[in-house]
Amino acid sequence: MATLSQTKSRAVARSVEAGCIADCAECTTQIRYSAKLKPRQIIANVYENGKWQRVEHYHEECYLLANSPYGNTV
Fold first, then answer.
1. Which of 6, 11, 53, 61 is a good FRET partner for 24, with 20 to 30 A between their CA atoms?
2. Which alpha helices (H) appear in the chain, and where do they start and end?
3. How many CA atoms lie within 13 A of 32 on its CB side?
């Protein structure tokens, strides 16, 4: 079975899960779970020169303030 390799940076929006320990790449504060607020985070796979380099996490509002550096999250 052939799989297509994605070599372009991209981002998706996801709910913040309990126990999340990621720091926001924009504001550098921790992305925290809240049962009352139901926050969302943006998770980006970052590729450079066609090779995967890292994963970056953002608060949803920080990603928008950074002008969506890895594209729309739909």
1. 6
2. 60-65
3. 7
